Amino acid sequence: xxxxxxxxxxxxxxxxxxxxxxxxxxxxxxxxxxxxxxxxxxxxxxxxxxxxxxxxxxxxxxxxxxxxxxxxxxxxxxxxxxxxxxxxxxxxxxxxxxxxxxxxxxxxxxxxxxxxxxxxxxxxxxxxxxxxxxxxxxxxxxxxxxxxxxxxxxxxxxxxxxxxxxxxxxxxxxxxxxxxxxxxxxxxxxxxxxxxxxxxxxxxxxxxxxxxxxxxxxxxxxxxxxxxxx
Length: 230
Ligand code: 9D3
Description:
The protein has helices at 14-17, 20-27, 64-80, 99-105, 123-128, 145-156, 165-175, 204-222, 224-227, and strands spanning 2-7, 32-37, 50-51, 61-62, 86-96, 110-115, 120-121, 132-135, 189-190, 193-194. Strand 9 (189-190) and strand 10 (193-194) form a beta hairpin. It folds into two domains: 2-156, 3-Layer(aba) Sandwich (Alpha/beta knot); 173-229, Trp Operon Repressor, Chain A, CATH 1.10.1270. It contains nine helices and ten strands. The structure holds ligand 9D3. Residues 1-228 form the tRNA methyltransferase TRMD/TRM10-type domain.
């Protein structure tokens, strides 16, 4: 998969996307991630990316020209591969990012992410360029950069060959709609707190039964809303 990000804060990305599983996925060639500075596509000497809203009112609006030009340039790479990129605007008005949406996005060849800012983006960008508007939840952030990184993180870990076998099973578990069962590691006792006896029993039928029951119990207690989907 190829992921292009268009942003006015390109420096925010490398410290996050250059770590851990995403770093490994990039090094293994499972994903190519490129960050593009929107200011490179401006045409005035001050590299202006925003302007005052027509009709008046507070705040600034992201100008359409640098965004159209940046995305036109990035689309050319997809045209050569004979596929249409998905052009995603990270926006508080978007469809909420869920595991289901992440799975759908992970099947694509090329994502172009546009990070919004200020009071908003010129409506013509949404109408004529963007194919998907995505939000990460109902709270107000300062821009689309953190949401873009969240989206990249959740999509990249779903790409073939990125996760090992052991961690891919939690993909299934969340999709079954339950939280994880409680986990323990050594020591078997700390500050008088003991690991549940069943886990030390070696009886895998009993252990599996216990874990299933615990997963239900934990879900009922912490996220009862999830049980409606099971
Ligand atoms: C002035 C009204 N604001 C809407 C509540 C405008 C506005 C606020 C914050 C416009 C952009 C932003 C910056 N946030 C994002 O670009 C954003 C976001 C978010 O704030 N929450 C959850 N998901 C996302 S995705 C992009």
